[in-house]
Hints:
The chain has helices spanning 50-53, 56-72, 83-92, 101-124, 172-185, 202-208; strands at 2-6, 43-47, 130-138, 144-151, 158-164, 194-198. The chain has 209 residues and is of the alpha+beta class. Helix 5 (172-185) crosses helix 6 (202-208). The termini are far apart. The relative contact order is 0.09.
Amino acid sequence: MSKTQAAPTPVHQGTSESSSTTASDTIVPIRNVKCKTESLLGYVDYPLSDEQTSLVYFCKLIAEDCLRWFIHANIPFFAANDDFFHRFLDVIRPSYKAPSQYVLSHNLLDSEAVHVQQEEIDRLKPRKKITLLLDGWEDHLKRSLYGSVAVEINHHPVVLALEDMTGLRGTAENLVAISQKAMDGMEIGDGKNVIAITTDNPTVMQAYH
């Protein structure tokens, strides 16, 4: 990693030339809007000290943002190994080493899944009038999938789980089992805040109740 600053003066606001190599410069965001519209040619990179390069947490934040960009832009993880992607990064920050396809799809993705699940658990805890939605479909690989979603008026829906039921029938007993498993995983297994459960099969719905 390295620190970017305008030549000949640093781009960080509120800093002086004598303090431009401190560790705080590497984590303070650049607030100057003008800098975002200028050419990269007006900037130079300086190597970080050993103390700065040991900021593991800061490096982890960069990697997590990279993962979220891949996910939200619907970019396949194998693009992380693309030569032109690395050439692009070399132009703007030669010292930055981007996470590989494996790191994105395993280490970082697993960590992000745990993080998001905990956020959703915390979001569900104060809700008192949850409706549980159950639905099943067949994907392109011919797998029978059933999803469980918790909804409430004036709140964003929360996906509880997605269960592969290939080879199993969509009976009331099986739906009870997967919905209970989904609620347990999101720490609402006691069902005290669930006021209704619905699915698209009336016969199964009656048997479920």
